[in-house]
């Protein structure tokens, strides 16, 4: 790591490069063809006023208490967790000192294994998990500016994205969608649109130019119709007329739900069960949000619930080799997120090893761009160590957080 640390010191504040020429000094087209990968973590959304994970937990507790007081399943789950940590680890916790991700990990294991038996409420979780997900969605929604009131760096980022770029986001919010809508740039929220479904393979419909956004952990405006469909089937088997009550899918289209995907899909495609809401203000304007959004718990065990979104991951172990850029914004790669570490390791290794010295579409691959907010040497060294698999001879680091200068850094050419 010695040589890396020396190189890192030179690169940390190197934010601007000449975009007009490649490494051979040859004039480049002003418009980049795209084919870049952008990975967004929580740090991407913080400048828009979105809460951090540390802010979410006490606010969730406050809202549950405001709704039900302190005698409810959520608070009983908290006390069970406090007792578990005391007797298993010798750790003294209180309701105010609990770490949200560790608490949700405990609940995820309990729910995934069905330890509560008949009290295992739904595919979204047990009672405590449902409270957390509903109120996380509500809190984030309330803190998200409208598409016309975002900080300018989001519009600039959206403008500079190419319709050939792919954005992988780990965030539940809709900041990027709103920025793209503001600048009038089309996007889709699923990997491929199909023109025809085949027996062995599907035919991709690539007739539309649009940015691809893959929300690996779900979104606060996504909801599943699976429970509603199961209810319809139960009514049918029992010979009951009508349909079960449902706050989204049998409520006179109160919230304007529409499919996440469009075009033909395989019958077993889990994405066909996911719907977005147009009137999200009306939904989260309820004191108690009436349904649970399709978001993975903010826990160390979230991958066990990734099945609805597995199509988002398909083939990423081979990505990067023929891409022109890889950028990571506001994601510090926590040690417990091994599934993301493996994915990013594969992408960046492919990117930095394959076709590095040859132009693709008349452009050389850009350096890996890493944007984070680090204020001291210790924090910067920690970031470099977390991403130790990056070849820093082929990477640039910016540690002043996401901003207009960071956007310039991200889209400038290093070679």
TrEMBL record:
Pfam families: SIR2_2 (PF13289). It comes from the Bacteria. This is SIR2-like domain-containing protein. It comes from Halomonas cupida.
């Amino acid at each position: 790591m010695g040589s890396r640390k020396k190189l890192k010191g030179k690169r940390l504040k190197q934010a601007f490069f000449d975009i007009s020429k490649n490494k051979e000094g040859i004039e480049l087209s002003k418009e980049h063809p795209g084919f870049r990968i952008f990975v967004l973590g929580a740090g991407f959304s913080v400048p828009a006023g979105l809460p951090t994970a540390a802010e979410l937990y006490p606010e969730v507790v406050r809202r549950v208490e405001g709704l039900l007081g302190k005698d409810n399943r959520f608070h009983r789950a908290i006390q069970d967790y406090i007792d578990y940590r005391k007797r298993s680890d010798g750790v003294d916790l209180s309701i105010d000192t609990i770490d949200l991700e560790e608490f949700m990990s405990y609940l995820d294991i309990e729910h995934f294994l069905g330890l509560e038996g008949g009290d295992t409420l739904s595919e979204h979780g047990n009672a405590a998990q449902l409270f957390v997900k509903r109120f996380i969605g509500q809190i984030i929604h309330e803190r998200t500016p409208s598409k016309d009131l975002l900080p300018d760096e989001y519009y600039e980022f959206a403008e500079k994205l190419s319709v050939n770029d792919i954005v992988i986001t780990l965030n539940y919010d809709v900041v990027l969608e709103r920025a793209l809508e503001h600048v009038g740039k089309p996007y889709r929220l699923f990997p491929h649109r199909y023109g025809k479904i085949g027996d062995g393979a599907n035919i991709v419909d690539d007739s539309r130019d649009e940015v691809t956004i893959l929300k690996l952990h779900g979104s606060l405006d996504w909801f599943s119709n699976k429970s509603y469909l199961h209810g319809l089937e139960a009514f049918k088997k029992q010979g009951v007329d009508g349909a079960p009550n449902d706050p989204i899918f049998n409520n006179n289209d109160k919230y304007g739900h529409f499919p996440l995907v469009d075009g033909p899909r395989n019958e077993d495609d889990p994405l066909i069960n996911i719907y977005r809401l147009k009137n999200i203000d009306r939904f989260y304007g309820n004191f108690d949000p009436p349904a649970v959004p399709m978001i993975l718990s903010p826990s160390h065990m979230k991958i066990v619930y990734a099945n609805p979104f597995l199509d988002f991951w398909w083939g990423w172990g081979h990505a990067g080799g023929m891409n022109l850029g890889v950028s990571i914004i506001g994601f510090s790669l926590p040690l417990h997120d091994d599934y993301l570490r493996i994915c990013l390791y594969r992408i960046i290794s492919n990117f930095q090893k394959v076709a590095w010295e040859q132009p693709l579409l008349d452009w050389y691959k850009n350096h890996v761009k890493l944007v984070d907010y680090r204020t001291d040497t210790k924090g910067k060294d920690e970031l470099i160590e977390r991403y130790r698999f990056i070849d820093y001879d082929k990477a640039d680091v910016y540690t002043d957080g996401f901003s207009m200068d960071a956007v310039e850094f991200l889209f400038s050419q290093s070679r």
